[in-house]
Design goal:
By secondary structure, this protein is of the alpha+beta class. Helices cover 42% and strands 12% of the residues.
């Protein structure tokens, strides 16, 4: 996942990437964010936290 995140960003793609992992240590989160992940979720997944993270990536446009 981390290498893929690096490759996606190196190719110039701008998409939100979220690491979802069972690794609970701070290094795992640091490594993921350093690799270009835009978010980090630990398993078991808390759906409220996941929903909030995903909503933070949604761009809304005000009505014209």
């Amino acid at each position: 996942g981390l290498e893929l995140a690096r490759l996606i960003h190196a190719q110039g793609y701008s998409v939100p990437l979220v690491a979802i992992t069972a690794r609970a240590d701070a290094k795992a989160e640091s490594d993921a964010l350093s690799a270009g992940m835009d978010g980090f979720i630990r398993k078991p997944v808390d759906t409220k936290n996941l929903r909030e993270l995903l909503q933070s990536f949604v761009v809304t446009h005000p009505s014209e």
